[in-house]
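Request: Show me your protein:
***
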Amino acid sequence: MKLIVILFFAFLFIESYAQETNHQPSTLYSVNVESAPESCECNLDNLFKNWIQDNITNAGELELLSYDYVGIIEDAADIALYAERMTQLDSPMWGWGGHNSDIVRTKYFKITSYIDRYKAADVTEADKALFLEEINTERASSRLLLTKMIKRGDKVFSITARYKKEQDFVFFVFCNPQSFEMKDIYFGFVTL
């Protein structure tokens, strides 16, 4: 029964994310831009310019170092490859939060990995298997989200970043080469 509830909420998450990204793309890629982006690279340059304390309360904890063009999604096998690669136990996992009011406006994030969550969990030995099953369900939901989000012909970019001056991560983001819409499971959740 618990697994059914988890799958239900995972489905709701995927559906709400898909609806949100279809109607309100991240402004981290476009805020403070005088005209519409002219390329995927322009959007990535904007992300690097907008990654500041004014927009993200703890932006200083993640130093965006560089981005590189990786290639183009050719087929379903490429989509599956990136979906799998981005949901490994040691892959970075983001959590976003924030508060908006007339007085206070904050956006913040936290990066962890599935395996770090598992190691840090305060669960009994008997519950560890159930907790690992929940993590694997989340990973499967994220893979499903990615397979629906990434499309054939999308450009693939890697973003290298250093978290809390301790650990380097590589994040993959995707861009529609016609509309320059950016798609990801990291920065794409933020609207400013």
User: Anything to note?
Assistant: The chain has one domain: 2-189. Residues 55 and 146 are 26 Å apart (CA to CA). Helices lie at 2-23, 40-50, 76-85, 114-120, 128-149.
